[in-house]
Amino acid sequence: MSGQAGRRAPAEASTDDRVERAAANWAAAIWQTSVVPVARGALADRLRPLVEQLFAAAGDPDGGYATGTAVGGRLVAEHFTDPEALARTLIALDPALPAGQRGALTAGLAAGYTAALRGRTLAEQETIRLAAMQAQARAERALSAAEARFHAVYADSAMGIALTDLDGRVVAANGALHAMLRTAPGGLSDRDLLGLVHPDDRDSLRDMVSDRLATGTVGRIRTERRLVADDGELLWALLAVSVVRDPAGRPTYLVVMGEDNTRRHHLADTLSWQATHDTLTGLANRTLFTERLQRLFARGTGRLGLCFLDLDGFKIINDSLGHHVGDDLLRHVADRITAAAGSDSLVARLGGDEFMVLRADSAGEAELVALADRILAALDEPITVAGHELSVSASIGVIERATLGTDAAELMRAADITLYWAKAAGKGCWATFDPERDAQQAARQLLAEALPGALREEQFTLAYQPVVDLADRRVTELEALVRWRHPRLGELGPEAFLGIAEETGLVVPLGRWVLHAACAQARRWLDRYGWAPVVSVNLTVRQVCAVDLVDDVQQALAAADLPAQALQLEVTERALIGAEPVAALRSLYESGVRIVIDDFGTGYSNLVYLRQAPVHGIKLARSFTESFNSPSHPDRADVAIVRALVSLAHTLNLTVTAGGVETARQESRLRALGCEWGQGFRYGRPAVAAHIDDLLAAGRTVAPHG
């Protein structure tokens, strides 16, 4: 057994070697005959089973023909489809095949390879044919769908669509275009579509089509044009024109699409009008007025004039009769102003009951004044609104000037100020611009702006003017008068800024500072000389009405450790009107502070109030004493008035001080009429505290002047 096994082993090894060599030779022969992504060694491994199959066909009844056929088919299945692969296969395998089956195997291999290759080719052709048929079917379906979609868009679109020749003759048009142009169905056939464009827009559109579109400069034109419908109505349309070209690129047709934009245009026009016009009166509004004014200034030359109107008492009509009556009244007023202004003026409503008349290229101020007179005259006639006969008047600010050297903002500022002057003059008045008055008000405004800072920076100081006993010229009082040491304007008297302080409310903190400064100075004089005249401080109406007046006075006295009897407050007659101011003054009166009525006789001289007022004395207005300086005799009326006032004051146990005493003649006449005290330049001008120190150090009397 073992000997037999030893004899068979070499024979088996020899068969394997033949298979390996045959597979390697076969792989080397056909490796590069076809595009098969496999390495030569790997290809030999894949071919080895086929070689083994061929070698095993020795016992087949047909001599291996069927096996060769199967192997030839496998070779095609391995994608070796180049005929060169078959030839090299036969050459490479022929020596290795068994001699008895070699013919049948090679014949079968060639037949199988050929049959498989033919089958593969037919299969690929069928695949290509089916793919082509499927592609054609898809294309036909896509074309059918595209045609359906185009028909839907063309027929059902809200946008007008037309196909025209290159001259604009209509080949086909959808219903939307017929409806847009008010034509019957089919009524556009063979018509010149561009001929329906408005004559003013037609030629330019034809040029765009022929010069830019047909030549290929642009692929499509989008433009907005006016069209004339068959019924003559003008409409705005957004047109899109494109060209259809044949396969050679030659233009053949035009596709015109149009969208009716008439409503949008009307809406835009309406919105534009509303943006520049007053919806109530139809006049120009502030926006249009400002644009027109800016345009006139942009010219750089010429003159213009303004009449700035404000109705007098319109709020009363609006509040009492209702806004619907007020609105109707404004419409009537607008019509009258427009008629009076004429077509060469722009009339605008700036808002509320304010109107502006703008006259370009005006001929001078006289022209604008005449225009203002015409407007006022036009408003004189009563206006009947909702059964009410209403009388209307207006205040008008008139300004006329050259455009060069100014601007719109400055002009409007001047017009606004001038209107304010007109309203201050009374109803139904006009006022013209006054540069000098404007400069004064501008200076006043600058002072108003500087006042708060002046208080913070303590730019104020006090001057004092003596009040003397007319019998012996003994100093009884020192009136504290505030001064403003302005860093740029120098020293300003109270007449320059107290009115501003009163209007702005700053007079209260300023008055508080004066109280504290005067009381502190009085304390210094008491400490230095052992005595001091009463310090007198003026109070404005706003100060007297302030809720904290009593606290302010008491705090000033306490801070200076000054007795109440050393302080006198001078108030005007108007300050005695009202329960609260009188109550505050009575509280101070009862605390010992002296109260005197300043400028008595020029204000609200109600004797009942005077009899009950908490006051210690009166100071006569200077206007009553001026005539007492006459060399011959004073005015009899002034004498009678002073005599009566002195008598009245003494009856009420009040002292009388005469202001404005400048000469010995005035002094003697006032003393003869019973005036106790006098104040004026005869006894000294207002002076700083250091000068008063010299006066008090010299004694209690003053040397008269004049």
TrEMBL record:
Residues 146-216 form the PAS domain. Residues 221-273 form the PAC domain. Pfam families: EAL, GGDEF, PAS. Residues 444-700 form the EAL domain. The lineage of its organism: Bacteria, Bacillati, Actinomycetota, Actinomycetes, Micromonosporales. Transmembrane segments: none annotated. GO terms for biological process: regulation of DNA-templated transcription. NCBIfam families: GGDEF (TIGR00254), sensory_box (TIGR00229). InterPro entries: Biofilm_reg_signaling (IPR052155), EAL_dom (IPR001633), EAL_sf (IPR035919), GGDEF_dom (IPR000160), Nucleotide_cyclase (IPR029787), PAC (IPR001610), PAS (IPR000014), PAS-assoc_C (IPR000700). This is GGDEF domain-containing protein. SMART domains: EAL, GGDEF, PAC, PAS. Residues 302-435 form the GGDEF domain.
